[in-house]
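PLP-dependent aminotransferase family protein: structure, please.
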Amino acid sequence: MTLYLNLAEQLGARIEQGLYHPGDRLPSVRALSQEHGVSLSTVQQAYRHLEDLGLATPRPKSGYYVPLERQVPALPQVNRAAQRPVEVSQWDHVLELISSSPQRGLIQLGRGRPDIASPTLKPLLRMLSRQARRQDPEVLTYGSIRGELRLRGQISRLMLGSGCRIAAEDIVVTTGCHEALSASIRAICQPGDIVAVDSPSFHGVMQALKGFGMKALELPTDPLSGISLDALEMALEQWPIKAIQLTPNCNNPLGYIMPEANKRALLALAQRFDVAIIEDDVYADLAFSYPRPRTIKSYDEDGRVLLCSSFSKTLAPGLRVGWVAPGRYLEQVLHMKYMGTGSTAQLPQLALAEFLEAGHFEPHLRRMRAQYLQGRDLMVDWVSRYFPAGTRVSRPQGGFMLWVEMPSGFDSQRLNRTLLAHGIQIAPGSIFSAAGKYRNCLRLNYAGKPTPALEDAVSRVGEIAGQLLAELPEPV
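Here you go.
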């Protein structure tokens, strides 16, 4: 991301978090130049970008101000439900979401898919084609269960950006991040065990716990900073928790980045109670701020953090290539991978290794970060404009997911059923909870390039949501 976009993102986050209110004067160009060590022209570019987003307005000979008419939706509330382990439900609704395939006329606002139409992916398509045309029997073999060494070497290099120094031999290539998470869970836990999770949380992990006969303990999660460490500490004191699973960077679905101090404190709790941490880092390379946030794994000195990621969100989900750095649990994870898929397909691994070696990955990331940042700001604006009063929205700090909270009593599953008749799909909030909480919430995807059709779809979601909300009985 360029300097001015990075600065604009930081200022925009302060405005959206309420540090500057409508009508407040923003820092001067000169003050920001000195504070961030950038040129005056960079600051001016940042302010022009904020103007385009409706976050700042200039006043002659006075500076920049937050527009008086600026209305920022409130953040989603932190769930305060009683903390106890529960068996996971909601499989039917998850299956309904993941079974939908791309089809003409259906606008899928619910799936966790990146934009795969970017021209920066063309080199990858060429490399996949070239690998196939070589007619090399190597691409038809099983390959190493650890994964292609060339690819693991490139992943090791990429992980330096997250603060990790992990050798290629300590990385296992998996069939997507989903397998990395599943193998990690099974490497540590047995049926009946308890796993602490953030809440709301990725439905894939929820369903893995269900399939393995394990229970989830949902922790209160702040939409800006992540799980409550106090709640985690109390849970660890009360329950025999075997692992903590969370997505601390560009969280799905809330979009927060956990502060670095919280990551260190969480790791200290895990060490004190001797539990493993399964860290999902799949969205972190799409953070809007620079530098890329560090992983919890980067602070790990005793190998208790299993770091999971993939290219599904940064490049394309159809590649089905992920990885895990399992630390002290390497042998157990290898065993679980062998019991699951065995080795991962060779052809996409070889093409990805070539793509990374040629230096195509970072230019692609820069383009997607800028696109997703614009998409986030537009989606928040559309939700503010078209959804009923009282709607709350998250402030994603990366990735391409927006969490929307409607008033209590609203039914997002009913909303989704109604929308499907109009050619629109959303993700109901209940699938992001082990116990089916967040029925009044929904997740929207803003990965695609903005179009009038996309705005019309969001407008229709808000319109129908308003109609369903109006049908609710008045609270007593």
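Notes: The two ends are 50 Å apart (CA to CA).
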